[in-house]
Amino acid sequence: MKVGLSADQELLVGTTRKYLQDSVPSDVLRGLRNRPEGYESEYWTTGAELGWAALLVAEEHGGGSVSGEGLRDLALVAYEFGRQASPGPLLGTNIVAGALSRADGVAFESELEQLVSGTAVGAWAYAEPVPHGGLGEVAASAVESDGQWVLSGDKVAVEHAAQATYLLVTARTGDGLTQLLVPTDTPGVTITAQRTIDVSRRYARVALRDVRLPATALVGVAGAAAADVELQLQAALVIQTAEMVGAMDRAFELTLGWLADRYSFGRPLASYQALKHRVADQKLWLETSHALADAAAVAVQNGDPQAGELVSVAKSYLAEYGPELLQDCVQLHGGIGVTYEHDLHLYLRRVVIGSALLGTAREHRLRITTLLEARKGARKVEA
Amino acid sequence: MSEIESVEDFRARARAWLAENVPRIGPDHRGRSFVRPDDEELAEVAEERRIQRLLFDGGFAGICFPKEYGGQGLAREYAEAFDQELAGYSFPERLQVPNMTPCATVILEFGTEEQKRTHLPKILRGEELWMQFLSEPGSGSDVAGAKLSATRDGDDWLLNGSKIWTTGAWWSDWGLCLARTNWDVPKHRGLTVFMVPIHQAGIEISRIEMLDGSNEFCQEYLTDVRVPDSDRIGGIDDGWTVGTRWLLHERSFSSSPYALHPTGSNAYGSAQGDPAGNLLTLLESAGRVDDPAAREDIGRAYALQIATSELDRRLHALILSGKGSDQLAAVGRLMHGVAGAQLATIAFELAGQSAIAGDVDDDVLGDLGMRYLLRQAGSIGGGTTEIARNVISERVLGMPRELALDRNVPYREVRTAPSGGSSGARR
Fold first, then answer.
1. Does any CB of chain A come closer than 8 Å to the CB of residue B404?
2. How far does B390 lie from chain A, in Å, by closest CA?
3. Which of A217, A237, B3, B64 is placed for a possible disulfide with A213 were both Cys, Cβ 3.0 to 4.6 Å?
4. How far apart are CA A45 and CA B200, in angstroms?
5. Going by CATH, does the domain composed of B131-246 fall within 3.30.70.260?
């Protein structure tokens, strides 16, 4: 995806691509729809050996990345996941591991060891059901009582929650946010699989009813986790947009090949100007999506003050043009494009999932305007 | 050997020099799209030439042009740093496209040593201002269908015919001219490029009034214009070799390191400064700060601007690294047309009735109606978006080429409109 990769990054990408091609080719993927977990546990632990879950974890906490820029490396892996519509809890596990390492990698040493090695899966419980379904809305509550935390509320669209050992729950304490690490077997935690449109990626509802947790479950600072949550959101959007670009890229490739091979009225579809011009527009959307996803990864990696704006720019663009590109690929394929037998839907699903989770195009456009106003306000205060 | 100055040292030097020497854009600055009287236009051209000369004397003109031709001989990163520092300053806007690129870049690429030494330093000093004699009344997108003819006369050539859509020919000095030198070969093989002084007896300049009342575009009528063979660029009948690169430079103007693009100058009008600030001003002026639909539009507009600049950056990196064909420039050209039209539409819709019936002194919203009427100009000038889509599909993606009836046929036998002209609706 990147214009210039280091040799180590090329190696990470190469081994990931090869492993995904060998272990989960598309006929295997199609079969995964019948598996409640959506992936084999050995598949994930082998992936973890390649470094998939270590990239946001500091070296002293057992993690590490090939380039020293973990999020950018992770974006490369996510792009490969998109290219092959691969299964596995990539986003959730990395976000949870990254948050634990940043907060206190020593205290969470054991959890980090399990997450990085792939023996445990992490899930970030962030989004909530209607009427609190908007991006960033948090109604779940975390209350401190007698040296314990009591957690209540509902979370939805939690990626692979039913396969997870640990949930990172974002909750509200008064006016601020608090994050707690919740083992999924804690009493009061109920995880119910949700209906979803992917063949292998699973989502669940998490009900939290007076869940009692020790003080050590606290990740970061009580009532002051907003900045951490923003960082998690930014990193998650980088992973998500990179995966979307990968899926768009592959669907576009399939479509170009199809147009060259398919003949109608004695000539290849690719020779019709009406179709060529649509493909040119698709190429524009694809290249722009690449550019924005890369720029967002760099900005978040570097802690750029405008990273929040840039991830929302990337997400709002991809959430609009990603599905548009995929649907047009379907249209250009004709009937075969809406069959289960063809691979195209695997990428369509990934792009559509990405467009709707962690904020829609509309929510991110609104967020951009709010962030721009905040930036302008901050400048006025400085002056 | 002296140490090469780092980009950051260069940036610091540029920042200090700009603050010391170049005027900032005033609050009453009007973009180029604003229609002004001729004397004002000429005064601004003169001021831009003056600033160009300042840049030259200060060692900041032609950052990526070689030193021996008056440039600074620096890499692209220096040009980018300078663009960032230039934000908010007056700059020679009219001297960038097509003067610095494609005109000067074509001379740099195809000119003889003598031609380069004669013209490039003068261009970089603001003494020569170049325009393109490219489109013709009978051929716009089909550039290679040029009919302006050049016939040999001793050591000279005689040029006859007409060129059109020349920006500001009336205040410019030289035209880079694509002419037909051979009618007995297929169209791409009978073209030659010449350098022509604009203000001379054989050239009549007629100004074209655009729908907003501006008279900046011109049509030129050339009658027996004598051009010495030493002012030919490239080989005789080999003008399309020059022409393909010429068009490529034209398509990549927005990311070309040979022209200045102060950060913040953007497709949303010609306003300079911070795009975020401009959009928030628009939102406030429209009185719609609390309207979620309007706020969403502002977010979309900002995203489109960032998308355009990030795409330019990516395409340039792909081309420079050799990982992508240089024809990828057409993707950027398409984006500028498409995003520019989207931005004009968003701004127009936000302004609502104020864009149609605005108070005379309403500078924020009052211009948006006219800008909307001219919305498609950005998808037409500089090569249409249709041609960009052809280039992307055929030359970037390798899809089959369009059927052409003029290939491998002597150009004289190719069917063209009888008058060689535009049959405008009013005629």
1. no
2. 7
3. A217
4. 78
5. no
Q: Considering only the top CATH level, what class is A226-382?
A: mainly alpha
Name, in order, each residue with C-beta under 8 angstroms of B27's C-beta and a sequence gap of 6 or more. none
Rounded to a whole number of angstroms, the distance from the CA of B381 to the nearest CA of chain A is 19
Q: What is the spatial distance between Cα A308 and Cα A183, in angstroms, rounded to a whole number?
A: 30
ipTM: 0.95
Angle CA A33–A128–A302, to nearest 5: 90
| Residues A256, B397: C-beta atoms closer than 8 Å | yes
Name which of B303, B317, B389 is nearest A3 (Cβ-Cβ): B317
Place of tokens 């490039």: B120
| Record: contact A313-B303, CB cut-off 8 A | yes
Tell the CATH superfamily of the B264-396 domain: Butyryl-CoA Dehydrogenase, subunit A, domain 3 (1.20.140.10)
B149: left (phi over 0), alpha (psi -120 to 50) or beta: beta
**pTM for the whole structure:** 0.92
- A313–B302 CB contact, under 8 Å: yes
If you classify domain A123-219 with CATH, what class do you get? mainly beta
pLDDT band (50, 70, 90) for residue B425: very low
Q: Which CATH number fits domain A7-120: 4.10.320.10, 1.10.540.10, 2.60.40.10, 3.40.50.970?
A: 1.10.540.10
| Domain residue spans of chain B | 131-246, 264-396
pLDDT (tens digit, 9 = 90+) per residue, B124-153? 999 999 999 999 998 888 999 999 999 999
Name every residue whose Cβ is closer than 8 Å to that of residue A368 and which is 6 or more positions away in sequence: A309, A312, A313, A316, B298, B299, B302, B303
B298 to A283: CB separation less than 8 angstroms, yes or no: no
Rounded to a whole number, what is the distance in Å from the CA of A146 to chain B's nearest CA? 44
| Interchain contact B392–A (C-beta under 8 A) | yes
> DSSP letters along B150-212, please?
EEEETTEEEEEEEEEEEETGGG--EEEEEEE--SSS-GGGSEEEEEEESSSTTEEEEEE--TT
Helix axis angle for A273-301 and B292-321, nearest 10°, is 90
